[in-house]
Specification:
homotetramer; Tetracycline Repressor, domain 2; DNA-binding
Chain lengths: 216, 216, 216, 216
DNA sequence: TATGAATGAGATTTCATTCAT
DNA sequence: TATGAATGAAATCTCATTCAT
């Protein structure tokens, strides 16, 4: 009891980058769990081993911290998307992979889905540096567009469906499964965390998206 | 509609039913705007013309009030669904009408979408009397099922797609347009409140759903 | 010890006007002593027998309380001025009385002097409802003007000195004696609270003001 | 004047004297603006380009820094007074010059006036080494005394007015114009920074002081 | 049924200052 | 001489809720 194990404790004199990162990690969890107003700075502090003071030292205020984890949340999914290498797949396969990866990512990162939901509750008021966000996010749409373009030139995809529309459909379907799983379970008794349900949904969503694109 | 005439000044000595209703109306607005933890009892009191005390008098505590508006929110959409009269339309037309009505309803009632989103952030912890909820909500799925059944027996719809799956797809697509409009606007610059966008989305979503069902 | 004497304690269920007044009284003292930023809400609460919470209940925030005592401070001196009945005295006597009363008031109400000093430190940022202030304060200048007018028409006062200028001179001399007494004492060893010094100053200031006015 | 050229970027490795001086300059500004308790060590640090740590390094604590700028403030006006060369002017002219110079100095150095005001709010608690202060400040009174003496021996000045009294009157009138300009503006609408007002006040104050002295 | 006054508990934030090199 | 990181202690303020009639 006397000798503190030093193992978990980031204590003092540690490098600030790690401390910052550590705060962000815990804060993401807490904000995702409780929302912006529901989250308690004290809980974040308690969950790691720092004082609340440190949080204010690094992030100024609660909202500053929130903005930081919001940015981080978007960075995560963008990172995933950037390593897909869809250009080597034929259009239909590429599109399937994009859908499946998106679904899997949101399934494995419900905190991302929750944070985005929370930010929408706040009318996206904290997404200020939109310029950088926009640029990075348009990359996703570009990726979709590239697949569509190939599909169109190969004569398999329709020409009257836009990339952003497809992106919206994919997002909506994958997002909803995670964001609304609780009320859906309560109301319809369907457990969307069930792997079999997941697999079935994956198939359905892929088919739906492909169905929107291919010329029958 | 009749009782609303004196609504602006519920002052004192009004009938309790109206007062209760009045509180619910304002509370819905405030909860939808700010979430459960973000909403302030004081703000609700201020927005109508009663004291906070009245709210406690009628609803016990903040969560009691929240539960009441949650119930009210679901009652609203259910009411809409119950008057659809889809059985007189041929399957494809019926399905289109269901989609369009759903989209329109959520477009016109963003507070419903927001409340459901909020309740999901709270893991549907406040949907207690699930039994009644389930029964009522299964009505929607029943309605979809009825359309599917007719379509199948007419040989136009596939047999391997389930009613609940179709409901989920419709819900997801209509819901997302409202729930995520803020981040979507921030990130992609697309204004989902634009009537032209709305019309376009309505068509796309209808086509997607029909595309999932018809045998090509 | 069990039965609280109820004597000093304004406890609960007391009339709000008295509570409010009580807070103001103590707050005036504390703000005058320590300034706006130096004053502690907790100290004010401790000095009476309420909780800090009550202060926020009545005045919103620290600045709200400060604004209230600022107003009160000005109301005090205005009250004094309004009961002078200078119109029954001949001009020179009236002017002497005005000077003496002003000097005495500020001598007996150093908290007024300090509050005004503090507000000047804050660039009078908290004197918002200037309209009411102006009206009330112009009464002082009116009073001076009235004396001057009589003196002029009697041929004893000069015509080229304005009422506001005289008011400024009186204010400056009386105010300074109180506001700067500490540094003056430290630097020159003169104790301005000494009654003899007070008397001497009263004479000097009266003479100086009269000297500015009379035609020699 | 020479050493100020590189003043804007005192960055690192600069000579300690300059750094100290730089801190003092900024601190004077900040303390004059916000008072002792209102001033923030962090703001002072931010306004120059050092860390707060440096301030503690040089001045020990916030009060130490405050004491230093207080001393500096008095040194400034004393410096001004010491170069007046009043002895070559005839008594009345000398007195006029003294008044005018005082008024101009305080007009041009409101931070001096504010610091003195602040120190009075703190009951001159920080003027510790009074001995040196007294000696230096008595020089002003000596100067007044010298003028009075000459005036008296020339038969133009009264014998019953003391030098310290005259000093107080001059101080009060010049000081008030700066110290109370904000509330005066708010209450009477008179802008004491207006050059025309300044000129008029200069005349009035001179006349008043001379009026106190001359035998009519 | 109705209500004005009051409040405990806890949340966020600030600020001067010290640690460790 | 210089400094980046860290922090204890306390300050302000908020919020749902209850008291007492």
């Amino acid at each position: 009891m006397k000798k503190k194990t030093a193992a978990k404790t980031p204590k003092r004199r540690n490098d600030p980058v790690a401390t910052r990162e550590n705060i962000l990690e815990v804060a993401m969890e807490v904000f995702a769990e409780s929302g912006l107003s529901g989250a308690r700075v004290s809980e974040i502090a308690r969950k790691m081993r720092t004082s609340q003071r440190m949080i204010y030292y690094y992030f100024g205020d609660k909202e500053g911290l929130y903005r930081a984890i919001l940015e981080r949340a978007y960075a995560g999914i963008r990172q995933m998307e950037s390593v897909l290498e869809l250009e080597n797949l034929e259009p239909v396969a590429a599109m399937r992979k994009l859908v499946e990866t998106t679904l899997d990512y949101e399934e494995r990162h419900p905190e991302f889905v929750r944070i985005v939901g929370i930010e929408n509750l706040h009318q996206a008021r904290h997404m200020t540096d939109v310029s950088s966000l926009r640029k990075q996010n348009n990359a996703v749409v570009k990726r979709v567009e590239e697949i569509l373009e190939r599909g169109r030139s190969e004569g398999v995809f329709r020409k009257d469906v836009q990339a952003l529309e497809i992106h919206m459909v994919i997002s909506a379907l994958c997002f909803f499964r995670v964001s609304n799983r609780y009320t859906f379970k309560a109301v319809f008794g369907l457990d969307m965390t069930d792997p079999q349900v997941n697999a079935r949904h994956k198939k359905i969503i892929c088919d739906a998206v492909i169905g929107m694109l291919v010329i029958r």
